[in-house]
Amino acid sequence: MTVIEARGLRKAFGTTVAVDNVNLHVEGGRILGLIGPDGAGKTTALNAILGLIPYQGGLRVLGRDPWTERDRLVRGVAAKPRSFPVRTSPANASRSIRGFRFRFDERSTAGLRGCIVERSVMTPAALGGRTNGTILLLEPEAHVAARQCRITCGVKPHNDAVRDARSETYPMRESKRPLSLRVPSWWKMACAIVTVCVLAAAVAPAQTFISLYSFCPQTGCADGDGPLAGLVQANNGDLYGTTYLGSTLFKITPEGAFTAVYRFCFGSDCPAGFGPAAPLVQDTNGDLYGTAYDGGETNDCELGCGTVFKLPPGGKLTLLQKFDFTDGANPYAGLIQGTSGELYGTTTLGGAYGRGTVFEVTPSGTLTTLHSFCEGGNCGGGAESYTALVQGTDGNFYGTTAEGGEGEACAGGRTNGCGTVFKMKPDGVATVLWDFCGRTGCPDGVGPSALLQASDGNFYGTTQGGGIGGACTYSYGCGTIFKITPTGGLTTLYNFCSQANCADGAYPYAGLVQGTDGNLYGTTDEGGLGYAGVNPGGTIYKITTAGLLTTLYNFCSQESCEDGTEPTGPLVQNTNGNFYGTTFAGGTGGSCGSPGCGTVFSLSVGLGPFVETQPGSGKVGAPVRILGTNLTGATSVAFNGTAATFTVVSPSLITTTVPASATTGAVQVVTPGGTLSSNVPFRVIP
Fold first, then answer.
1. Strands, E, within 348-429: which ranges?
2. What is the 3-state secondary structure (H, E, C) of 161-225?
3. Nearest 5°: CA angle at 116, between 534 and 227?
């Protein structure tokens, strides 16, 4: 069967021709590699094949026009359009392109007809520098779930259908334009048309799990599809989030009433970007801010270099800043508001060395690049950050990178580092606190997630791979939970997949949140018991700061995963005491295919209501917003015992200022229903 047929395929962005007169004929079962330098048009060709962009010329995928028949085409094709670079010699470039493992989830028989994968290869001496290769893996197996393809780096395929497949390479033309898209192998990225994926646990106490909303109940998925990010509680008491595949921004009440607020897209009509992958953040003025991975209408990246956007309360979403590669490109992580009032974030690529940046952006949109990541020891900090920063109580910024550092024992032969934990001073000087995977087997983990500074002053996080979980499928482990001190002392608290069949969970892509009980809460993307011990769809877990882990919920506990599967984003604890989150797939909205398009869920573990301050620190006289539940009728507000004047704005919001003589400690609000304390101490800045 002919899977891809292209005749005179052409795509131009303005006056720049990205793909010019390309002819392809690919039969089923063949692996096709596209090799060329950055900006040669490989990703553009792939996006045309996937139906993401219009094009000129003739193109058929599985006999269909991908641009006009995309909705029908995605039922038979899965795609993972981004992966990570592997440095190799020119002689090994084509071998590296073919030498990967494609893992199939054999539990499902959804009838997938093909998987499309993009894999980057770095060849320092070939074609004048960095070279990227794209693989299209087509019709490798008759029965593969579209949302269950997984990619790992390796020496040879471990699936017979792939091992026996023929392969070829197709050289693309020379170009000096930068390529914008790539992510680490252990980092899950979803495609833009269908979902694709590249603990000793104790028994959970009683809790209440509710699936609040299932995405894509109608054809076209106007409400969104495939949420990668977690949620944020806003001043109005609602929760806000984004979907990556559907590229939407939405709000949902704690009870589950859903509203689609904005739909991102490419082009001049949607300048705010496309593909939001990170949680939003709300500043002290009540405005919401976020990042989009692609878009921004620049010619510096094939799909745009990404954006920062702003959503005022009750207002219209607007573009705040678009990246142009020199100041960064493709922000995958969300923003934080620093004690200075400015917003801070990271980009995965771009900057002075092309390996990502740390930036500051004002609420009005002025951007400053604080730090450019690079490989080696000259830049500090590592390379390619996919996670949000956290500002420590010492005023410095802490974060992680997916690559870089001196740990070079990662599985798959990577030599460009396995990720770091870094500290950055406010002036942009960064130093590495920990290099992951310094020993064979990566017992300390590989690919760290976002950090959390807990109430004990230490930082906690997860790694997507590595560890010594003995039951793990992949050679580099199923991930860890770690603690690291502000000076860089790291302790592994837990190794996932320590139980048979990974009943305790595997691959914790999301970071952690500290609950009001002092314990840490998080999710794993895979593993768990699932429905009757099959279809493990990930878990929700609790872990003490001493390392005792309890599994709270197993996703895909229902036969068709109506409760959701693959919780990729972090949890958030609402001021009503419950935890809320999203799953990338599952649910009952089936317009995007099996097994569902993602969900929003809540989990109650018996924790009571509390109040949250925005920001979490400030000087005497600084304005502070207090979020809560049922705040109407509040009679007093105190900062560590010092009374403050206040105004009750709504049942979910109180405004106040830091009173004179206030000291660091809990903020307490007395309401008719009782006294509510802040979930973390408010830090009074001298």
1. 357-361, 367-372, 390-391, 397-401, 420-424
2. HHHCCEEEEEECCCCCCCCCCCCCCCCCCCCCCCCCCCCCEECCCCCEEEEEEECCCCCCCCCCC
3. 60
Tell whether the model's pLDDT for residue 274 goes beyond 70.
yes
At 417-464, the pLDDT tens digits run 788 999 999 999 999 999 998 777 789 988 899 999 999 999 999 998
Q: Following DSSP, what letter does each residue of 486-519 receive, concatenated?
A: TT--EEEEEESS-SGGGTT-B---S--EE-TTS-
Burial 224-261 (b: 16+ CB within 10 A, else e): bbbbbbbbbbbbbbbbbbbbbbbbbbbbbebeeebebb
CB atoms closer than 10 angstroms to residue 88: 22
Record the tokens describing residue 523, joined without a space: 């999710």
Residues 6+ apart with CB under 8 A from 424: 358, 370, 371, 381, 389, 396, 397, 398, 399, 430, 431
Cβ(346)–Cβ(320) under 8 Å? no
Is the separation of the CB atoms in 293 and 274 below 8 Å? Answer: yes
Residue 211 phi, psi (nearest 5) = -85, 110
Residues 6 or more apart in contact with residue 245 via CB below 8 angstroms: 190, 191, 192, 193, 194, 195, 221, 224, 225, 226, 592, 597
CA distance 418 to 464: 11
Count the residues in the chain: 686
Whole-angstrom Cα distance, residue 53 to residue 582? 28
Structure-token pair, residue 93: 């470039």
> Given the structure tokens 């094949």, which residue do they identify?
49
Contact status, residue 304 vs residue 284, Cβ threshold 8 Å: no
Q: What is the pLDDT of residue 377?
A: 55
Query: Which of 676 and 378 is assigned the larger pLDDT?
Result: 676
Strand order in the sheet with 56-61: 16-27, 2-13, 56-61
pLDDT band at 684 (very low <50, low <70, confident <90, very high): very high
Rounded Cα distance between 520 and 452, Å, is 9
DSSP assignments along 44-69, one per residue: HHHHHHTTSS--EEEEEETTB-TTTS
Segment 498-514, tens digit of pLDDT: 888 889 999 899 999 99
Neighbours of 623 (CB within 10 A): 13
pLDDT classification of 164: cutoffs 50, 70, 90: very low
Q: What's the pLDDT score for residue 424?
A: 96
* DSSP string of 563-630, one letter each residue: T-B---SPPEE-TTS-EEEEESBBSS--TT-TT-B-EEEEEE-SPPP-BEEESSEE-TT-EEEEE-SS
